[in-house]
Amino acid sequence: MAIVYLTRRFHFSSSHRLHSDMLDEKTNIEIFGQCNNPYGHGHNYELEVTIKGTPDPATGMIINLYDLKKIVNEKLISSVDHKHLNEDVDFMRGIVPTAENLVVEFWQILKDALPAGELYELKLFETPNNVALYRGEWE
Ligand code: NI
Fold this sequence. Notes:
The chain has a five-stranded mixed β-sheet with strand order 3-1-2-4-5. It is about 25% helix and about 30% strand. The protein has one domain: 6-pyruvoyl tetrahydropterin synthase/QueD (Tetrahydropterin Synthase, Chain A). With about 140 residues, it is α+β, with helices and mostly antiparallel strands. Strand 4 and strand 5 form a beta hairpin. The longest helix has 16 residues, at about 65-80. The mean pLDDT is about 95. The chain is elongated. Nickel (II) ion binds next to strand 2.
């Protein structure tokens, strides 16, 4: 059976503030600069969700893209789109909302939510130039 990787791209807009409760005010400003501004700033994020699997012989599909879209929108995008990631999103509470931390939390939400195939990779574009990629690995 051929193993195929299928990707769908999602979009959401959120605001955030990069600030760590583990660091003092001065150090937060030194490390995060403008991104530490008290009232936050926004990004137009792009998230690529890649599923690994074998195409069903009858349908030719690993997963129905309609189902994938619906699940990711319901379980994840709806909780972050047009929200303040530090203030409005329960699963980000106490976590610095960098792209790295976001993509790891997104993985926890999506990994068991898919009806077919397995979650292979999440790629989160914070800007066209800044990308965090996660494949569920720990060390
Ligand atoms: Ni930012």
